[in-house]
């Protein structure tokens, strides 16, 4: 089994300047052995998963954001599209997630999907990641 560290992942993440860089980041961390990750919008700590139940967790990246209870899918989708075009940085995207009721996202590197969830665990959006 290939083991990876948060430092390995953060080194790959340093190359990400906007959402437009996300597909290359996904390819790079998959090559490290990451099979999935779960990012929490509240502070951007992330659980990274590998094979054989391997898991590691990053530290918080910023002070806690308040995530609203009412989901606004239309506004979130517009923010996401802007982020994917490279129009916003990561922290701005996280603030937009909190503002529109997104609590976390889970990325599966096995099926190349990113699924966004609200505070009740409901799926807000499931999208394919280009690869």
UniProtKB/TrEMBL annotation:
Pfam families: DUF1398. Gene3D superfamilies: YdfO-like. This is DUF1398 domain-containing protein. It comes from Empedobacter tilapiae. The lineage of its organism: Bacteria, Pseudomonadati, Bacteroidota, Flavobacteriia, Flavobacteriales.
């Amino acid at each position: 089994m290939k083991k990876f560290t948060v430092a390995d992942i953060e080194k790959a993440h340093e190359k990400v300047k906007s959402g437009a860089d996300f597909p290359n980041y996904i390819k790079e961390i998959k090559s490290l052995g990451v099979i999935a990750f779960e990012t929490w919008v509240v502070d951007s700590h992330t659980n990274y998963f590998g094979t054989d139940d391997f898991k590691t967790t990053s530290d918080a990246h910023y002070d806690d954001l308040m995530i609203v209870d009412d989901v606004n899918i239309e506004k979130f989708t517009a923010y996401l599209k802007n982020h994917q075009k490279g129009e916003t940085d990561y922290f701005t995207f996280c603030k937009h997630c909190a503002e529109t009721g997104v609590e976390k996202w889970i990325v599966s590197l096995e099926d190349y999907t990113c699924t966004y969830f609200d505070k009740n665990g409901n799926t807000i959006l499931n999208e394919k990641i280009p690869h």
